[in-house]
Amino acid sequence: xxxxxxxxxxxxxxxxxxxxxxxxxxxxxxxxxxxxxxxxxxxxxxxxxxxxxxxxxxxxxxxxxxxxxx
Length: 70
Hints:
Blueprint: H1 7-10, H2 13-28, H3 33-48, H4 60-68
Helix pairs in contact: 2-3
């Protein structure tokens, strides 16, 4: 299940569609549906972790910073 009070609840339909397409891509790569939900959850948390910085502009350093704070 998509996280509540997360990005899906705060953004317009096009963002909801993004996360659904992301989930479908994860499943399409061979990940089980239940596990794909986990991938979406953590990707959403990463997306929310740096307000004001677009997801497209994130770097590997941003990912490492996010993971080190977990």
